[in-house]
Write a structure and sequence with these properties.
Length: about 150
């Protein structure tokens, strides 16, 4: 469970960074003249928390098959998209003018979700390589001492 929380926390920080990038890109594309105040700095943090909640809720102690993991990841991504869209647009009566924003946000959330997993995988790969090197060094040292 401790490792799962650490993974979720790392995912949160990666998400917040990527959300900032997505907000910048979508803002320039969809509303280039729009200006906002300091409260806008809180939104990536809020979206990061919203994006982390399904990962905390869907935790499983048992080892999942590849198929079960893929299904779980897909469900988690759909939940995150739905939660973010509900948070962003839930107070509005959705009309055609919001469709480009909803599509842009949905695609951004999906891209961010995939990138968070890619970056997490790369960090795990680096950690595993370092551990393998350390283990080989330890084994070489141990065999040399005998």
């Amino acid at each position: 469970m401790k490792e799962h929380l650490r993974t979720q926390l790392a995912g949160f920080f990666i998400s917040v960074t990527l959300i900032n990038v997505a907000m910048f890109v979508l803002g320039i594309m969809l509303q280039p003249d729009y200006r906002f105040g300091y409260e806008a700095f809180a939104y990536p943090l809020i979206y990061g928390v919203i994006g982390s909640v399904p990962g905390l809720v869907m935790y499983s102690k048992k080892e999942l098959t590849v198929w079960q993991t893929l299904i779980r990841e897909f469900i988690q991504m759909v939940l995150i998209v739905a939660l973010i869209i509900a948070f962003m647009f839930g107070r509005f009566h959705i009309t055609r003018e919001y469709v480009p924003q909803i599509i842009g946000v949905s695609l951004s959330v999906m891209i961010i979700y995939v990138l968070v997993h890619v970056f997490s995988w790369l960090m795990d790969l680096k950690t595993a390589s370092k551990m393998t090197e350390d283990l080989k060094a330890f084994q070489a040292k141990a065999s040399g001492e005998k």
